[in-house]
Amino acid sequence: MALLELNDLRVHYPVRGGFFQRVVDQVKAVDGVSISIEAGQTYGLVGESGCGKTTTGRTIIGLNKLTSGQILFKGKDLAALSRNNRHPLRRDIQMIFQDPYSSLNPRKRVLDVIAEPLRNFERLSSEEERRKVQTLLEKVGLNADAAYKYPHEFSGGQRQRIGIARALTLNPKLIIADEPVSALDVSVQAQVLNFMKDVQREFNLTYLFISHDLGIIRHMCDQIGIMYRGRLVEQGSEQDIYEHPQHLYTQRLIATIPNIDPAKRLENAQKRRTLLSSYKTELPKHLDENGKPFVLKAVSPSHQVALP
Ligand SMILES: Nc1ncnc2c1ncn2[C@@H]1O[C@H](COP(=O)(O)OP(=O)(O)OP(=O)(O)O)[C@@H](O)[C@H]1O
């Protein structure tokens, strides 16, 4: 049995207009999405901005209401369960948000940020809570003292680790990661992604990984779904999607990937930086001495030509 199954999920937002603010139209943000995710796997949901990825994730976690369809988690239909029966299942699904700069409350200490889900589900003494938070901080590679600091005292990558620690507090089975690295510098992206893979192994997690970046999706995911205007146009294994894309939209998306391996991308960015710092670019002139158009050329410091 799959850990999570979406059956014909639809989420439509009403568009209101006119003097009486009547519903005049619907935005079909998610329009008939069916997905099945096996325990321990990473399912990547990819597509351009506005195609409905975030709405799908938020609906699974209960932040949005579904219009129709089923969300089966461990075989139970979340929408059909009473609040009381749904509550214990909710703790098994957590979310990592896109922007670690805005998703952590700046007025709360890291201890309170990470302990918040615990306080909703468990009654721990403050000593037990502190110990649990500090163990988690160490697991995500931060110092236990970080518990007494505020989010602004950390870098973007460290903040995303705090977001990951927060998602792990209740030992969830499924984590929905919505663009977890898109707000981070490319050099930090690879670290956080690899760290998420380590955490997945250690905690036996299943990920629904949402991204618009096919390079990152390839690095992270076993199964991939391509979304376009609220619908899934193609689903398959990582190899199916990248080696044999069937749908024209998938083929176009793949053709636009600049460099699909994030580790390679980082290596290339570093190479580019080194090259730029050791080379100076001579400014172009319009014509050379023979009257031919001047070609822009890079010259090493030892061969620099003094510009007139
Ligand atoms: N609360 C809302 N009310 C009305 N329309 C909404 C609402 N939230 C999202 N939408 C619309 O639903 C569609 C899907 O939005 P969604 O945020 O799910 O897309 P996305 O693929 O996650 O995009 P991005 O990558 O830019 O976050 C968009 O057209 C968006 O404008």
Topology:
Blueprint: E1 4-17, E2 22-37, E3 42-46, H1 53-61, E4 68-73, E5 76-77, H2 83-90, E6 93-96, H3 110-121, H4 126-139, H5 156-168, E7 174-178, H6 186-203, E8 206-211, H7 214-220, E9 223-228, E10 231-237, H8 238-243, H9 248-255, H10 262-278, E11 280-281, E12 298-299
Helix pairs in contact: 3-4, 3-5, 4-5, 5-6, 6-10
Structural class: alpha/beta
Following the backbone from N to C, one meets helices and strands in this order, namely EEEHEEHEHHHEHEHEEHHHEE
- What is the percent of helical residues? 25-40%
Question: End-to-end distance, in Å?
Answer: 74 Å
Outline the low-pLDDT stretches: 279-286, 294-308
Associated small molecules:
adenosine-5'-triphosphate
Instruction: Give me the side-by-side strand order of the main sheet.
Output: 6-7-8-3-9-10
Determine the number of helices (DSSP H or I, runs of at least 4 residues).
10
Domain ABC transporter: 4-254
Keywords: ATP-binding, Nucleotide-binding, Transport
Family: Belongs to the ABC transporter superfamily.
Protein name: Peptide ABC transporter substrate-binding protein
